Every structure is written in C-alpha cells, then in structure tokens.
Amino acid sequence: MSTSEILGIIVALTQIGGYYSYYLSTKKEVRPNTTSWTIWTIGAILELISYMYVTSDWVKNLLPLACSFSCLILYINILYRGKFQRLNLENIFMIFLDFAALGLWYTTDSALVGNIALQVSTVISFVPIYKEVFDKYQNETIPPWILWSAAYFLDLIVIFLRWDKWGDLVYPLTNFILHFIMLILVFIHTYQIKKKSMNYEIEPHLYAGPSKIAGNGLFTSKKIKKGEVAFEMKGPKIYFHPRNKEEALQLPNIVGLDKDFYIDPVYPYVFINHKCEPNLATDEDGVSFTAIRDIEENEELTFDYSISEHSDWEMACGCGSEKCRSIIKSIEKLPKEDFKRYYPYIPTYFQKVYLKEYIKDNK
C-alpha cells in the first residue's frame, strides 16, 4: 500500500472521528438544528457524487465518502432524538442552490462545474453558522473542528501526492478554509467564555472536567452536605424573550431567574449538566444552588434544567439515571412527583407557572 493510500485512510478516519466528537457534543453543549442538518446532508451526498466524477480516484474520494456517510448517520440520529423544524426561506434557498448546482452539471455536462457550484453553496451555508458563533448564540466545541480541519488539510497533501489536475483541489481546499475559520471562531468564543469568568469570584472548590453524562461537567473538590449551598451561579444577567422554539434553543446555557430574565453562566458554571436525579437544586432566588443530598468529593454537580425554564425549549436527555425522562422540557411539563421534590428550591416565578398550569389541567 502506497503512502498516499495510507494517508487517505487516515484522512477518512479523522473525518469520521470529527463527526463522532460532534455527536458527543450534541448530548450537552451543542443543540443541532434538524433543518440545517437536512441541508448539510443533502449537500454532502451531492458533493460526494460530483467529486467522484471529477477525480475518478478512490483514494481522493475517501474523505467525501466518509463525510457523507457520517453526516447521514448523524442526521438520522438527530432526527430520532429531536423534532423536524419547519423550513424557512433561507433553508429553501440553500436547498435550491444545491439542486441548481446539479442542474448546472447537467446542462454543462461538466462534473467539475457542478462541484464548484456546490462549493459556492457550501460557503453560503457556513455564513449563518459563523454568525451564530460570533454572536455567541451557539456554544460549539473545539475537538470536532480540529479533527475536520486536520482531515481536509491532510487531504490536500493526498491530492498533491496523487496530482492529476487543479479541479481536484477545489473541494478539499474550500472545506479546509471554511472549517479552519470556524475553528478559529470557536477558539475565540471559548477564550471569551473563560475571560468573562475573570470578572467574578469563583468558588475555589469548583472545577470543570470530562463528564460521564455529556461533554464537560462541573465538579466539586470537597464534600457538600445536604442543605448546604454548593455555590452561587456567576454571570451577567440578561433579558431574553424567545418567540418560538427555534429562538428558545439559541441560548442553551442560560439559567432562568424570573420571567424573561436569565443568568448567562461564566466558566466553569457554564458546564453544569442536567440530570433527572440531580444532587443540586436552586434556591428561590435561582442563583444559589443547594445540595439536596450529600455530595462526595470530586463528584459531578448537576441540577434539573426544567426548574428554571419556561419557554418552548426542550432537549434530549441521556443522563443515565433510572428516572431519566428522555426529553426535558419547560417547568410546566415537569412530573408532579419531581415538582413536589424540588418545590422548596424552585424560583418563585417558576413555581407560579407550574401551579397555574396544574390548576388549569385539573379543573
């Protein structure tokens, strides 16, 4: 087996690794948009087909093959765990561009023209993602973008090792630039999250680390007894009024304090995970987090997200507890037995929301 063939296999495995890393992040940090993933999956498959005609080289085609396969598998998983969202004009325009590229390929009888047109569509599709990260609406994680950038960079080496024509460069070069820009933006976003925490006094026993629930988690280096305040959530207070489900998912890390009033947690509080059988609950102020059972040294700190949310927000849950609810929703969807258990700790506004809904449903 030649050097370029071995490198081509490494490229494909690196690309698949990036998608697996992204899959892990969707369990906590990242909230994938099913409609966007529909567009990306269609685009990935069309790019694979057109690039196969451009190169006619199985080694060069390993990366787009790994990309389209992984994208399709992840898309099916996202659909299974989530709910398909209605297409907006931007989504329809992106799908139109993909199929317009196919039409261009057919009319010009040139796979290269069709593939270049698909790259233009890809560039346009990345603009909203850049905006989301730049505006800090989307909390992307670094590892997938490192792996994807590395995969496309290594693929460029494969292209040069198996040089045939310049057209083979268009697909990997475009995607390397797009993914590398995203990587830089995510690095900047992560740095800004940590920098914000420098303006707050962080409890010394708190630290962030890999979580068995999902992504990173918030941990304590000391024991905390039941009824003891574990910490006070730190971060800027913001007003946020989501008008629909899509907007409700834009700020996945905020913690509700009152009607349309939230705290945007700084590092390391931003990593606190949800659990359906948590060890913490908020006090009535929504800022103080109190132990509802004894917590051991180096144990992960968790709370039930539902007790601080009143909107169309929802998320898939894989916390692993025996009472896992699978889909976590707003406070009024909380099971009655859980509400009773949390009641002394739920912020006043969310208590009223639940009780109002309960009374209405039981008239």
Walk me through what this model shows.
- The protein has 363 residues and is an alpha+beta fold.
- It is built from 10 helices and 12 strands.
- It has a 4-stranded mixed sheet, with no helix packed on it. A 3-stranded antiparallel sheet has the order 3-9-8, with no helix packed on it. It has a 3-stranded antiparallel sheet with strand order 4-6-5.
- A hairpin with a 5-residue loop joins strand 8 (280-282) and strand 9.
- The termini are far apart.
Summarize this entry quickly.
The chain is of the alpha+beta class and 363 residues long. It is 51% helix and 12% strand.
Determine the mean pLDDT.
82
- Written as H for each helix and E for each strand, in order along the chain, the element string is HHHHHHHEEEEHEEEEEEEEHH
Strand order within the widest beta sheet: 1-2-10-7
What share of residues are in beta strands?
5-15%
Could you say which structural class the secondary elements and strand pairing correspond to? alpha+beta
Radius of gyration: 23 Å
Helix content percent band:
40-55%
- Uncertain regions: pLDDT < 50 for 5+ in a row? none
Major pleated sheet: 4 strands, mixed
Shape: elongated
Count of runs of 4 or more consecutive helical residues: 10
Beta-strand segment tally? 12
Distance N terminus to C terminus? 74 Å
